[in-house]
Amino acid sequence: MTEAGTPIVEMRRIDKSFGAIRALTDVHLRLMPGEILGLVGDNSAGKSTLMKILTGAYQRDSGDILVAGEEVHFRGPHDSRDRGIEMIYQDFALCGNMDVAANVFLGRWPTKGWFVDRRRMEAEAGDVMRRLKVDINHVRQRVESLSGGRQQSVAIARAISFDPKVLILDEPTANLSVPATERLLETMDELRRHGVAQIIISHRLTDIFEIGDRIMVLKRGRNVGERLIKSTNEKEVLELIVQGEPETAQS
Ligand SMILES: Nc1ncnc2c1ncn2[C@@H]1O[C@H](COP(=O)(O)OP(=O)(O)O)[C@@H](O)[C@H]1O
Ligand SMILES: [Mg+2]
After folding, report:
1. Is 48 touching ligand 1 by the criterion CB < 6 Å?
2. Which residues of the chain fall below pLDDT 50?
């Protein structure tokens, strides 16, 4: 992955506190189009907070965010969606008692006159699931009856249906079986081939080493290092996670 061209996302000098808790200090992040960035660090390092600031779910105290070179001020996830940023949360944020198709199009069901156009919704949900190579028998199944891996596919299908340029996955493999993890990594690879930039938060370094182009380490809310996957190893990254010293921010 070259560093040429304009980053799809750039965060500079991000600070964030929750009352007396300083969650992020002077954090910078750069994501190139079509790149997969692994974001790692111990619990409470600030990974989720940084991503929620990127989507507008949380507001930064200070710092700049640029999307495709343009400064942005997101008031909430609807604003970041308009700029092509989607995030999949750890709990997937789905409605368990509704079926797959209804979840993929949650909040924007196609209508025909006064009614939800079930047929169109199922067809379109089926299309998205096929793009993800997920078994489409599931579009009428209730989400709560699906395995964790399938539920995650639904969450991804929902995100992908917005045609994002940036997809953020927070601990996506934490509760997945080995085959489901492999499927997820294949999906991420497929999305990369379509030019979707991705940020994956994970405690499992092996997943990031399998799929990532670059890895960035946070410790106690600060950048402590960044490496190209091809020129580092798990041992070096673990050392950064445990013993890393704060970097000075670059702008
Ligand atoms: N909504 C919140 N209210 C108060 N404190 C929060 C909130 N979200 C995160 N924090 C705090 O910010 C710090 C960073 O948390 P988080 O971003 O969740 O870390 P990570 O995802 O790396 O485990 C932690 O000390 C956490 O307790
Ligand atoms: Mg987190």
Report:
1. yes
2. 1-3, 249, 251
Q: Closest ligand 1 atom to the C-alpha of 170? A: 21
Q: What's the sign of the alpha-carbon dihedral 173, 179, 182, 183?
A: negative
Per the prediction, the chain carries an average pLDDT of 91
Which ligand sits closest to the CA of 22?
Answer: 1
Q: Which chain residues have CB less than 5 Å from ligand 2, an ion?
A: 48
Is the Cα torsion angle 138, 143, 147, 148 positive or negative in sign?
Answer: positive
Q: Where are the domains of the chain?
A: 1-84+164-251, 93-163
Report pTM.
0.92
Q: What are the phi and psi torsion angles at 66 (to 5°)?
A: -120, 135
Q: What is residue 136's predicted lDDT score, i.e. its pLDDT?
A: 58
| CATH number, domain 1-84+164-251, options 3.40.50.720, 3.10.20.90, 3.30.70.2570, 3.40.50.300 | 3.40.50.300
Atom of ligand 1 nearest to the CA of 19: 4
